[in-house]
Amino acid sequence: MNVGTYEQLIDEKGRIILPGAFRQAFGKTLFISLGFDDCLCLWRNEDFESFVEKEIEKRSDLSRAQRQVNRWLHSSAHLLSIDSQNRFVIPQLLRKKSLLEREVVLVGAGARVEIWSKKAWEDYIAKADDSIEEIAESLSREFRV
Q: From 3.40.1550.10, 3.10.20.30, 3.40.1550.20, 3.50.50.60, which CATH number describes the 5-142 domain?
Protein backbone atom coordinates (compact mmCIF):
# COMPACT_ATOMS: atom_id res chain seq x y z
CA MET A 1 0.00 0.00 0.00
CA ASN A 2 1.35 3.40 -0.99
CA VAL A 3 1.07 6.14 1.62
CA GLY A 4 2.67 9.51 2.28
CA THR A 5 3.26 12.77 0.43
CA TYR A 6 6.62 13.67 -1.13
CA GLU A 7 7.73 16.79 -2.96
CA GLN A 8 10.02 16.22 -5.94
CA LEU A 9 11.46 18.10 -8.91
CA ILE A 10 11.19 17.17 -12.57
CA ASP A 11 14.52 17.73 -14.31
CA GLU A 12 15.03 19.26 -17.77
CA LYS A 13 14.77 15.79 -19.39
CA GLY A 14 11.41 15.08 -17.75
CA ARG A 15 12.89 12.69 -15.17
CA ILE A 16 11.75 12.38 -11.60
CA ILE A 17 13.16 10.39 -8.68
CA LEU A 18 10.86 7.78 -7.17
CA PRO A 19 10.83 8.43 -3.40
CA GLY A 20 12.41 5.73 -1.24
CA ALA A 21 9.09 4.88 0.40
CA PHE A 22 7.75 3.63 -2.95
CA ARG A 23 10.83 1.94 -4.42
CA GLN A 24 10.45 -1.55 -3.01
CA ALA A 25 6.82 -1.82 -4.12
CA PHE A 26 7.55 -0.81 -7.72
CA GLY A 27 10.74 -2.68 -8.50
CA LYS A 28 12.30 -1.68 -11.84
CA THR A 29 9.21 -0.94 -13.95
CA LEU A 30 5.89 0.82 -13.50
CA PHE A 31 2.85 1.89 -15.45
CA ILE A 32 1.99 5.56 -15.69
CA SER A 33 -1.37 6.86 -16.90
CA LEU A 34 -3.59 9.89 -16.77
CA GLY A 35 -5.62 10.09 -13.60
CA PHE A 36 -8.69 12.02 -12.60
CA ASP A 37 -8.45 15.52 -11.09
CA ASP A 38 -5.54 16.53 -13.38
CA CYS A 39 -2.99 14.17 -11.85
CA LEU A 40 -1.01 11.22 -13.18
CA CYS A 41 -1.12 7.73 -11.69
CA LEU A 42 1.78 5.36 -11.11
CA TRP A 43 0.89 1.69 -10.83
CA ARG A 44 2.76 -1.51 -10.11
CA ASN A 45 2.37 -3.72 -13.18
CA GLU A 46 0.05 -6.18 -11.45
CA ASP A 47 -2.09 -3.42 -9.88
CA PHE A 48 -2.61 -1.69 -13.23
CA GLU A 49 -3.53 -4.98 -14.89
CA SER A 50 -5.92 -5.84 -12.04
CA PHE A 51 -7.55 -2.40 -12.16
CA VAL A 52 -8.02 -2.60 -15.93
CA GLU A 53 -9.43 -6.12 -15.69
CA LYS A 54 -11.84 -5.38 -12.82
CA GLU A 55 -12.93 -1.84 -13.62
CA ILE A 56 -12.51 -1.42 -17.36
CA GLU A 57 -12.48 -4.60 -19.43
CA LYS A 58 -15.23 -6.53 -17.65
CA ARG A 59 -17.77 -3.84 -18.52
CA SER A 60 -19.65 -3.91 -21.81
CA ASP A 61 -18.10 -2.27 -24.86
CA LEU A 62 -21.68 -1.60 -25.97
CA SER A 63 -21.66 1.47 -23.75
CA ARG A 64 -20.24 4.60 -25.38
CA ALA A 65 -19.05 5.88 -21.99
CA GLN A 66 -17.26 2.58 -21.37
CA ARG A 67 -15.48 2.75 -24.71
CA GLN A 68 -14.41 6.34 -24.03
CA VAL A 69 -12.96 5.53 -20.61
CA ASN A 70 -11.25 2.44 -22.03
CA ARG A 71 -9.61 4.46 -24.82
CA TRP A 72 -8.72 7.35 -22.52
CA LEU A 73 -6.97 5.09 -20.00
CA HIS A 74 -5.21 2.77 -22.44
CA SER A 75 -4.05 5.50 -24.80
CA SER A 76 -2.42 7.40 -21.95
CA ALA A 77 -0.73 4.41 -20.30
CA HIS A 78 3.01 3.78 -20.66
CA LEU A 79 5.22 1.05 -19.22
CA LEU A 80 8.33 2.80 -17.89
CA SER A 81 11.71 1.61 -16.64
CA ILE A 82 13.25 2.91 -13.44
CA ASP A 83 16.97 3.60 -13.87
CA SER A 84 19.84 2.84 -11.47
CA GLN A 85 19.37 6.25 -9.83
CA ASN A 86 15.68 5.49 -9.17
CA ARG A 87 14.48 7.90 -11.86
CA PHE A 88 11.93 7.51 -14.61
CA VAL A 89 10.90 9.79 -17.46
CA ILE A 90 7.38 11.19 -17.47
CA PRO A 91 6.30 11.34 -21.13
CA GLN A 92 5.95 14.93 -22.33
CA LEU A 93 2.33 14.51 -23.43
CA LEU A 94 1.37 13.33 -19.94
CA ARG A 95 3.28 16.21 -18.33
CA LYS A 96 1.40 18.62 -20.57
CA LYS A 97 -2.06 17.10 -20.03
CA SER A 98 -1.63 17.05 -16.25
CA LEU A 99 -0.14 20.57 -16.16
CA LEU A 100 3.06 19.40 -14.47
CA GLU A 101 5.86 21.90 -14.12
CA ARG A 102 9.16 21.55 -12.29
CA GLU A 103 7.74 21.20 -8.76
CA VAL A 104 5.50 18.18 -8.19
CA VAL A 105 4.04 16.20 -5.33
CA LEU A 106 3.85 12.40 -5.24
CA VAL A 107 0.92 11.20 -3.15
CA GLY A 108 0.42 7.66 -1.91
CA ALA A 109 -3.12 6.59 -2.81
CA GLY A 110 -3.37 2.93 -1.84
CA ALA A 111 -2.70 0.74 -4.88
CA ARG A 112 -1.32 3.68 -6.86
CA VAL A 113 0.78 6.81 -6.46
CA GLU A 114 -0.53 10.08 -7.86
CA ILE A 115 1.68 12.82 -9.30
CA TRP A 116 0.27 16.34 -8.95
CA SER A 117 1.63 19.74 -9.84
CA LYS A 118 2.58 21.34 -6.53
CA LYS A 119 0.08 24.17 -6.99
CA ALA A 120 -2.78 21.86 -7.99
CA TRP A 121 -2.10 19.65 -4.94
CA GLU A 122 -2.02 22.63 -2.59
CA ASP A 123 -5.32 23.90 -4.03
CA TYR A 124 -6.90 20.44 -3.85
CA ILE A 125 -5.84 19.76 -0.28
CA ALA A 126 -7.03 23.19 0.91
CA LYS A 127 -10.50 22.47 -0.47
CA ALA A 128 -10.48 18.88 0.83
CA ASP A 129 -9.53 20.04 4.32
CA ASP A 130 -12.64 22.23 4.36
CA SER A 131 -15.03 19.46 3.31
CA ILE A 132 -13.53 16.09 4.30
CA GLU A 133 -15.77 15.53 7.34
CA GLU A 134 -18.90 16.18 5.28
CA ILE A 135 -17.65 13.87 2.52
CA ALA A 136 -16.81 11.10 5.02
CA GLU A 137 -20.27 11.39 6.58
CA SER A 138 -21.91 11.18 3.15
CA LEU A 139 -19.88 8.09 2.27
CA SER A 140 -20.73 6.42 5.58
CA ARG A 141 -24.45 6.82 4.80
CA GLU A 142 -23.94 5.16 1.40
CA PHE A 143 -22.45 2.04 2.99
CA ARG A 144 -24.99 1.56 5.77
CA VAL A 145 -27.20 -1.49 5.37
A: 3.40.1550.20
